[in-house]
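Thread title: Can someone regenerate the structure for this chain?

I was given the following input by a collaborator and told the matching structure tokens would be attached. They weren't. Posting the sequence so someone can regenerate them.
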Amino acid sequence: MKVAEVLQGKGSQISEIGTEVVKIGENSTVGEAVEKLVDHNIGSLVVVDSKGEISGIITERDILRKYSEFKGSLEQKPISEVMTTNVIFVQPSNDVEYIKKLMTNNRVRHLPVMKGSELIGIISIGDVLKAEHDKCIREEKSMEDYITGKYPG
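Best answer:
Regenerated them for you:
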């Protein structure tokens, strides 16, 4: 299974124009990031600079780690002090097995997906697990249909 299939399975359409990815400016505050995460029911935001270029990613985990470090309110802290700047990107053609190893080895749960220089989506470990589960269900149904004679063949 490829990353492109996982993105399509979560309702994303890969096209020349890409997909909507929730972003936030690097001059925004952590409070604004939390609001966006909650409003969109997501676990990460791509952080962009004033030119719209990707400068990092901020996740729920990043916020929790910094909260523990600062022992106080992060609401007014700039995202640039909290975000991950060493972002790992993947491509739609990457295999899901490769993505799982990448996530495990780097202890990350969200990976931006690039098609050339264009950001077309984000894949999370939850997306990967759901896609694999759905694939197992389809295979199980096909086997059941084959065994019971319902297989179209």
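The chain is about 40% helix and 20% strand.
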